[in-house]
From TrEMBL:
Pfam families: Polyketide_cyc2. It comes from the Bacteria. The lineage of its organism: Bacteria, Bacillati, Actinomycetota, Actinomycetes, Mycobacteriales. This is Polyketide cyclase / dehydrase and lipid transport. Coiled coil: none annotated. InterPro entries: Polyketide_cyclase/dehydratase, START-like_dom_sf.
């Protein structure tokens, strides 16, 4: 099992950042994300607990479920299915107010489930980290109005 952690300060109010990061439609504009589909709406504006969304990129396909939704500070999710298959994958976004806006900490653990799990997982670490950076960079640009 390996962990990926990405931190970024977004110069916007915490509620705006939380709303952007939890609205599945925003991910459509993130580079490398080909498709995002809300498979099942959750309990809060469709994006809360119980929401299931499909995220398709050129190298991964994930179906994830929101398991914790605490506006405006925390979201936790778990992957229900994926290609490549993951043995375990959980993630969380934690937001806190910061002098320069909102500090976002995105943390995920996963392991690729195949004959060479350690090697495959290590190969996917930079891809997952890069994906998190792209999402947070897109959120920053859009919340700044760029």
């Amino acid at each position: 099992m390996r962990g990926v952690e990405v931190e970024r300060t977004i110069p916007a109010p915490i509620t705006d950042v939380f709303d952007w990061l939890t609205d599945v439609t925003n991910f459509q504009r993130v580079p490398w994300i080909r498709r995002v589909t809300l498979v099942r709406p959750g309990d809060t504006n469709g994006n809360g607990v119980g929401a299931v969304r499909l995220i398709v990129t050129p190298l991964m396909r994930l179906t994830e479920e929101i398991v914790e939704y605490t506006p405006p500070t925390r979201v936790r999710y778990r992957v229900l299915s994926s290609v490549p298959r993951l043995r375990t994958q959980d993630g969380k976004l934690e937001l806190s107010e910061h002098a320069e806006g909102t500090l976002v900490n995105w943390y995920s653990t996963f392991e690729v489930d195949n004959r060479c799990p350690k090697l495959s997982t290590c190969a996917y670490l930079p891809l997952v980290r890069g994906g998190f950076h792209l999402v947070l960079r897109t959120a920053t640009k859009e919340l700044r109005g760029e």
